[in-house]
Design brief:
Helix content is 26%, strand content 17%. With 360 residues, it is α/β, with parallel strands linked by helices.
Length: 360
Amino acid sequence: MNQFKLAEFFCGPGGMGYGASLSKIKKNNKIFNIQHSWASDYDQDSCNTYKRNIKTKAIFCEKVENFFNLVDKKKVTLPKFNCFAYGFPCNDFSNVGEHLGFKGKFGPLYSYGVELINRYKPTWFVAENVGGISSSNEGKAFKIILNDLRNAGKGYNLTVHKYKFEDYGIPQARHRIIIVGIKKEFNLKFKVPKPNYELMTAKQALKNIPRNAYNNELTKNSNQVIERLKYIKPGKSAFNSNIPKKLQLNVKGAKISQIYRRLDPNKPSYTVTGSGGGGTHVYHWKENRALTNRERARLQTFPDNFIFEGSKESVRKQIGMAVPVLGAKIIFEAILKTFAGINYLTVDANLEENQKEFEF
């Protein structure tokens, strides 16, 4: 098998999808690649962004809760596919927030991916989520999720790994758990590609952005924010800087290290987020301002010709929720090498030893 047709749930603006489209391997004059079949997301701006930038046969802008009902009633016809990717919403498993897990609004949404795998039995799948999912609800949620994915369809060999994307040359400290499952009948197991450990700094990532680039509008910061930033050094935040009392934040009982935090130009960025109020937009190491969406997209390794649809806040959300494009590309290319029988440098999956704990 060398031609894979990809389906996606919770596709967002297309971080995983675009990374898949860049993935290509050649062996003995045979090309191994991934073509898009269809994608689905509930957010209209994300759907519009995906449609504008990624060649796909169909994109369904529907709530996943309605998806199978539409399929069963033949109101949606799915193009053929043989692989699947989904980054189910992570809000309830994130380290930021109430840690609601399955009790939250988004926690149970992983099950729709399991349902799709049960129905269509793709050759392989990729599931992505925040690192906090492994400890949510004392680890019980993660056990259930892995057990369901392992036993979906006719059974899958899982490889579970927490990736530190900055170790792979991504200019951002973004840590995500990636689960790769391959049908047991193929007798193949995905191996984690070895990091190159060549750090890409924020300064390197943000150089030479044309001022007239798409999605590059400046955020209007208040005079108070500008004055506050003058006292914050690169790599520091409003909570570990010597700021005059009149400019200090009126927050009691909390010191949030990311609030009004400037980038360190000589290190990868800290994690780009998709939401949050004042002080969470990521701030330039030298200029007294928040980053533009195009700069944030650079930190997520979207190319400058990737155009985001929607309002400035909608674009910010799309960028912050996405998987880094080049991080996804590395994983998809390793999957292609697995099926091509091409050896590549690997490391042990850092959650592999614990998988036995997840079997009931």
